[in-house]
Design brief:
elongated, mainly alpha, about 80 residues, 3 helices, Helix Hairpins
Length: about 80
């Protein structure tokens, strides 16, 4: 894929937005096979980048929690979870 954009400079939100758009385009079923494959490849790259960002954020949260004397992440209280 010679015109592939890099995912390195995207924010998590930008990557997710582009991934959602790719899914919509592919679900339409109107793409030629070559374009669908290129979009699928881009989607995989975006998904991997997003997953990496989430893992990094989780690790940072765990480090901060340990610094505050808590070893594990805890579930949100139900009233916060419903908002």
């Amino acid at each position: 894929m010679s015109n592939a954009k890099t995912t390195d400079n995207l924010s998590f939100e930008q990557a997710m937005q582009e991934l959602e758009q790719l899914v919509k385009e592919m679900e339409s079923g109107d793409l030629p096979l070559e374009q669908a494959l290129a979009k699928f490849e881009r989607g995989i790259s975006l998904a991997r980048t997003s997953q990496s960002m989430l893992k990094s954020a989780e690790q940072k949260v765990q480090i901060l929690m340990k610094q505050n004397g808590e070893d594990q992440l805890q579930d949100l209280p139900q009233e916060l979870d419903d908002q």
